[in-house]
Write a structure and sequence with these properties.
Bound molecules: S-adenosyl-L-homocysteine, iron/sulfur cluster, FE3-S4 cluster
Number of strands: 19
Distance between the termini: 25 Å
Shape: globular
Length: 479
């Protein structure tokens, strides 16, 4: 099958920068791409002789991986940096403090003014240079900045560095070529660059050899992957290739843009064994007037055509959306359109955000942030209330069904229960059976009770309903 990971992998870089054994501590804010980047940074540090610690007080290097998408995300980090001041009770004396990721990329040197105790600021690709930057700071105690976004990011991932054994994120593209007027991401992550197909297949194969059953392919507009390669493969081609990897059980992908599903995408992926019919494809707003001011490049009607095509091929496809409330100039009538479209498209899940002007984005430069905070709050709550109603309805329909659950481990709220995710990405909880280790296993669970956000059930002694329909490699139902 695929290549096996070498246990004694040579460091890909920075060998000359090896440091004596040190401990690194990570705190990660923001999206899944940031979670993956923290794993890559951890790998780079391990290759230079670091181990990881979960205790900030023991760390020689404290790394904060940051998000800039809304003001609130940056504020959280700034107040956290305050707590990490030298002389406080959190950090070991002499330890090095590094800020990496989107906030580093956006603010660069300015951050040393806001937080003079920072030692390192690195961006969304240069974080990979942490070992060398750390060694420099230790040598002369001068701060370091690394913000180059221009080079290719072709860092060879070692599958051993990941936070969960049975699931993994795989970045298939970085950056974004669009210019949604509210969004800071194109600034912080640069232009779109796709990873070649074979590189992705090899990475997923190595992950599967190391126990991964579910991969989530990451990209800002993940369904525009591949267009610059010879023959213009698309996400559907990639999903079909990954489907052939024996041992891989599920593929997910986030985030899609409504415009970029290529010809017959839904029909082509429908029968793939690993395809999970839960698709995050943000509409952002229900009013064409607002979509235009956001420069989202589609109308509600165009989105509707995409949904129709998806549901024609996959009637029970579960769609998820992001929404922004309080975008500049949003009227009450515009907001009513968002509420109506949420119902019309019958979303399975939604994330609702209050508009936050980001420095130097087109909307910040050209439009006043004119919706009062209280209106943003109310509109946000109204959308959330409709989504709760829809989610409850979707979950009610699952009562009595037996679903395949990939078990993540002990439930956070109740140690007598295990929790996992269904193919449609719903959290499912069930009683922990005695004497069986089920973490990382696919288990059929019959749903007996639901809330709007979770499913509760019991282990079934028959295969899951959806599995019986699919041409599967035998599922590992035995504990
Ligand atoms: N690339 C993805 C995700 C971008 S960030 C996409 O385009 O869909 C995740 C979400 O944050 C966005 O979908 C949007 O809903 C929200 N968001 C982005 N910028 C924002 C801003 N300035 N204010 C409020 N929400 C924002
Ligand atoms: Fe935050 Fe967006 Fe950057 Fe992710 S890509 S870390 S959500 S700003
Ligand atoms: Fe790109 Fe998404 Fe923004 S498509 S411009 S990152 S909202």
């Amino acid at each position: 099958m695929s290549s096996t990971p070498t246990t004694e992998r040579q460091p890909v870089s920075l060998q000359s920068e090896r440091v004596p054994h040190r401990l690194a501590y990570f705190e990660t804010y923001g999206c899944q791409m940031n979670k993956l980047d923290s794993e890559l940074a951890e790998q780079a540090l391990a290759e230079a002789g670091f181990s990881s610690t979960t205790e900030v007080s023991q760390a020689d290097l404290v790394v904060i991986n940051t998000c800039s998408v809304r003001d609130h995300a940056e504020h959280r980090v700034l107040s956290r940096l305050g707590v990490l001041k030298p002389g406080g009770d959190q950090r070991k004396e002499g330890s090095v403090l590094a800020l990496i990721g989107c906030m580093g990329q956006r603010q660069g040197e300015q951050l040393f003014k806001a937080a003079p105790h920072l030692d390192i600021v690195a961006g969304t690709t240069d974080f990979i240079r942490l070992p060398e930057l750390y060694a420099g700071v230790v040598k002369d105690r001068h701060h370091r900045t690394a913000l180059d976004l221009s080079g290719d990011f072709d860092y060879a991932r070692d599958p051993r560095f990941r936070s969960e054994r049975h699931r993994a994120f795989v970045s298939i593209m970085r950056g974004c070529d669009l210019h949604c007027t509210y969004c800071i991401v194109p600034t912080t992550r640069g232009p779109e660059v796709s990873v070649p197909l074979q590189t992705i297949v090899d990475e997923v194969s190595r992950l599967v050899d190391d126990g991964v059953q579910e991969v989530t392919l990451l990209g800002q507009t993940v369904n525009s992957w591949g267009k610059q390669f010879k023959g213009e493969p698309d996400l559907g081609d990639l999903l079909a290739q990954l489907d052939r990897i024996e041992g891989l059980k599920r593929t997910r992908f986030i985030t899609s843009h409504p415009n970029f599903f290529q010809d017959r995408f839904w029909e082509r992926v429908r029968d793939l064994r690993t395809f999970c019919p839960y698709v995050h494809v943000p509409l952002q707003h229900g009013s064409d007037r607002v979509l235009k001011r956001m420069a989202r490049l589609y109308t509600v009607d165009k989105y509707r055509c995409m949904v129709d095509e998806a549901r024609e091929s996959i009637p029970d496809v579960a769609l998820a959306s992001d929404w922004i409330v309080g975008f500049p100039g949003e009227t009450e009538a515009d907001h009513q359109e968002s509420l109506a479209r949420m119902r019309e498209f019958d979303f399975f899940h939604s994330y609702v955000f209050k508009y936050s002007p980001r420095p130097n984005t087109p909307s910040e430069r050209r439009m006043a942030d004119d919706i009062p905070r209280a209106d943003k709050e109310r509109r946000c709550n109204e959308l959330l209330a409709v989504q709760t109603e829809l989610s409850q309805k979707h979950n009610d329909a699952l009562i009595g069904r037996t679903l395949e659950v990939l078990v993540d481990g002990e439930s956070k709220k109740n140690p007598d229960r295990l929790s996992g995710r269904t193919r449609l990405n719903r959290a499912a909880h069930f009683e922990r059976p005695k004497g069986r280790e089920l973490t990382g296993k696919m288990i059929p669970v019959t749903i007996t009770r639901v809330t709007a956000h979770s499913l509760f059930g019991e282990i079934a002694d028959r295969p899951a309903d959806e599995i019986r329909k699919l041409p599967v490699v035998a599922p590992d139902y035995r504990g």
